[in-house]
Design a protein that fits this description.
Strand 2, helix 1 and strand 3 form a beta-alpha-beta unit. Helices cover 44% and strands 15% of the residues. It has a six-stranded mixed beta sheet, sandwiched between helices. It is an alpha/beta fold. Helix 9 runs antiparallel to helix 10.
Length: 275
């Protein structure tokens, strides 16, 4: 795991480009950051650790080089060290996919918002990871490639859940059943991503978005994110309002919320203390 000072173990870099932002960079650029089993486990480890790191306000996920993630490395993924030897094919695959499915779940469960900055191609398993973020921006040259059919498999890692909630059911059906590629400008137009930006401005825009989030109190952001996630599937308006009300009761009793109000009135940057 990469420490805050920028040291690295494995194929994922972790640094803090600005205070409060944990940047996780998939770092196999020669292979378009295609994922090995070790990288899946490493990414899960980073996400689990970040969840309890109070110095991290926003998580930024991106890729090194000219691509975000080309998906699962079908030629050199190695072996999953969490699966016992000697299992049958179905049993092996069930245990593998149960582990991989933790990635979008962890991204959504983090109290910190996750921003994905897609540089270049994202394909296969990289596609659901990119759209599992709370906000996804992409370089203008980026493209989203549905490679699942090419691999002879069904969709995975929550793709069939995430996609229709972004683009609508019919559009999701068309994209999933045809497997066609979506370029960044279309991705923005249909709601697949938040926006596309010039290639050389991608990281700058991602950090601006992170900084816009961090002017708000940590507990307010965490509760807003959880309300948004739960209420996307709320059974009724009444249930959604109840969820929001509970979040308000919790946040209003904190010193950080009072500090946010005072900073707004005094036109200064808030100083949050986690209280």
């Amino acid at each position: 795991m990469k420490e805050k000072d920028g040291s690295q173990m494995g194929d994922i870099l972790r640094d803090m480009p600005v205070e409060g932002v944990c940047r996780l960079t998939l770092n196999r650029p020669d292979a378009l950051n295609s994922l090995t089993y070790a990288m899946y486990a490493e990414l899960i480890g980073h996400l689990e650790a970040v969840r309890y790191d109070h110095d991290v306000r926003v998580v930024l996920l991106t890729g090194a080089g000219r691509g975000f993630c080309a998906g699962h490395d079908i030629r050199g993924a190695g072996k999953p060290d969490w699966v016992a030897e000697g299992l049958g094919k179905a049993q092996f695959q069930q245990r593998v996919m149960a582990r991989l499915g933790q990635i979008p779940l962890l991204m959504r469960a983090l109290p910190q918002p996750v921003i994905c900055a897609v540089n270049g191609v994202t394909a296969g398993a990289g596609y659901p990871i990119a759209i599992a973020a709370d906000m996804t921006i992409a370089a203008r040259s980026a493209k989203f490639v549905n490679a699942f059919h090419n691999a002879g498999t069904g969709h995975e890692m929550g793709f069939s859940y995430l996609l229709p909630r972004l683009v609508g059911l019919q559009r999701a059906a068309e994209l999933m059943l045809t497997g066609r590629t979506v370029m960044a400008e279309e991705a923005e137009r249909i709601g697949l991503i938040l926006r596309c930006v010039d290639d050389d401005a991608l990281m700058e825009e991602a950090l601006k978005l992170a900084e816009a989030v961090m002017v708000n109190s940590p507990i307010g952001i965490a509760l807003t994110k959880s309300s948004l996630q739960f209420n996307a599937d709320a059974p009724s308006l009444e249930a959604a309002i109840e969820m929001e009300n509970r979040a308000i009761f919790m946040s209003q009793s904190t010193a950080d919320t009072a500090e946010k109000r005072a900073a707004f009135i005094e036109k200064r940057k808030p100083l949050f203390r986690g209280k």
